[in-house]
TrEMBL record:
The lineage of its organism: Bacteria, Pseudomonadati, Pseudomonadota, Alphaproteobacteria, Rhodobacterales. Transmembrane segments: none annotated. Residues 61-106 form the DNA-binding protein H-NS-like C-terminal domain. SMART domains: HNS. InterPro entries: H-NS_C_dom (IPR027444), H-NS_C_dom_sf (IPR037150). Pfam families: Histone_HNS (PF00816). It comes from Stagnihabitans tardus. Signal peptide: none annotated. One of its GO terms (molecular function) is DNA binding. Gene3D superfamilies: Histone-like protein H-NS, C-terminal domain (4.10.430.10). This is H-NS histone family protein.
Length: 106
């Protein structure tokens, strides 16, 4: 691999190099995944199975316990938030206005 003097390159050359690197990484990842899939197809065949049928089975589903906290919109109680994930705008606005988050529990 030739030595690259990045400090001597222009901005356009650096951006071109960056694009080429991103593309090379993406191509490498595709090749790796394809190779892995091919190995799994061979292994499934050796064990007497069809890979596509095995892949369709999927893994065990992870069951989450239902959230015990349900926050309700202060003006429209049909709009709720479980307390998981991204906070909704109405919740953030309520808290920023000095409102108590516990007051939204329903």
């Amino acid at each position: 691999m030739p030595d690259l003097n990045l400090n001597a390159m222009s901005l356009a050359e650096l951006r071109d190099l960056q694009k080429a690197i991103v593309k090379a990484i993406a191509n490498f990842e595709v090749r790796q995944k394809t190779d892995a899939r091919n190995k799994l197809v061979i292994l499934a065949h050796e064990l007497g199975y069809n890979f596509d049928e095995l892949a369709a089975l999927g893994g065990p589903k992870i069951k989450r316990a239902p959230s015990t906290k349900i926050y309700r919109h202060p003006e429209n109680s049909t709009i709720t938030w479980s307390g998981r994930g991204r906070k909704p705008a109405w919740y953030i606005a309520h808290v920023e206005a000095g409102g108590d988050p516990e007051a939204l529990l329903g």
